[in-house]
Every structure is written in structure tokens, then in C-alpha cells.
Amino acid sequence: AQSVSQHNHHVILSEAASLELGCNYSYGGTVNLFWYVQYPGQHLQLLLKYFSGDPLVKGIKGFEAEFIKSKFSFNLRKPSVQWSDTAEYFCAVREGKLIFGQGTELSVKP
Amino acid sequence: EAGVAQSPRYKIIEKRQSVAFWCNPISGHATLYWYQQILGQGPKLLIQFQNNGVVDDSQLPKDRFSAERLKGVDSTLKIQPAKLEDSAVYLCASSLHIGEAFFGQGTRLTVV
Q1: In chain B, whose CA is at the least distance from the CA of A1?
Q2: What is the pLDDT of residue A59?
Q3: Which of A49, A56, A72, A88 is 20 to 30 A from B12 in CA distance terms?
């Protein structure tokens, strides 16, 4: 069955630190990949997406993600986090149906 | 463009009562999703529609949950009877056939 796994449940960083959140999925066919963010009190918003082409995709607010097909991974990165990046981050995979990971809560200390 | 509209925003009911949620997707979006998000967990797909047909409802507890999307536009999700463990945020999202999903604000259900 298709599944999405996010390795970190809660990450705490200081401002200006670099961020990498892991995401692995189980399905081996052609998939669409997404990262969504949920700021406190707000609805889920798209950060970035991968459908095809360049495996390094850039999203909003300085986020990027790299699709590594051989590792079934789509990790999210940001070189320097800000306090305003405090939120919950969800990886999602679509092959037919759209499935989400468990989420990673990011806390950035000022 | 207008976003995904959901109502109500909050609902408190007693166990064994019934409840219904409504969703109006973004105009032109053929795909509509209902998710259940329990505190501290990721959204769990309950049902996915393509126009007014069901793509997947494998995680929908069909003994108590039902959903419909008449005319391939707006949708309702019903729970009857509700259990304590149904307390969650119910999210509706929509997308074009190929494209990212756009989410509504959700309905927070508390079953007491």
C-alpha cells in the first residue's frame, strides 16, 4: 500500500540554522510529490511540488526539495530558517490518491 | 480566485448524534478530497472524488461515515452516529485533475 514517512516528529532550531526534513514514500511508480505547510491557526498551504523534470525544485519562502528516485525520497531544505518558519510541515505523494505523511513540527527559536 | 469553502467552522455534538459538513470547491476543480486530521497527526484521506465519481474511499468507515458529491460540484460528509474518536478537524480540498490540492479552513468537530 502507498505510504509516506516523515522521519522527524519535532525539530527545534535556532534562527539562521539550516533545515532538512526527511520524507520517504513507498510507491515505486510515477508519482507527484508535494510539501505543504500549516502555520498556527491557518489552513494547509503548498510550499512546493514536483511533477517531472529537474529533481531539484524551488518553492516559496526560500524552501527547496530534491527528488531522489532511487531512494524514494523528497527531502525539504532551507539554508537559513527564520522565526516565522515555525509551523508544521507535511510531505504528500499522489499516485491516484493523495496521501500525507505524519507531519514534522518545526520550532525556530529567535 | 475564491478558495475552498467549508462550513461550519466548529461543531460540538454528543456521541451517537449525527453531524454533516459541507464543502464548496474551487470552481472548475474536478477532484475533491475529504481528510480527517486528528491532533498531532497528518491528514488521513477519507474519500476522493473525481467529478461525482469515487476514486478512493478505502479509509472511510462506511458503517458510520458517508459522503456525496452531487452534480460534481459541492460535497457533504456525514457521520451517523458519532463516536468520541471522531473528534478531529475535517478538511476539504480540491484540485484540477493534475495539480496541487487547495485546502479549506476545515471544520473542527468535538464529540462529547
Answers
A1: B58
A2: 95
A3: A88
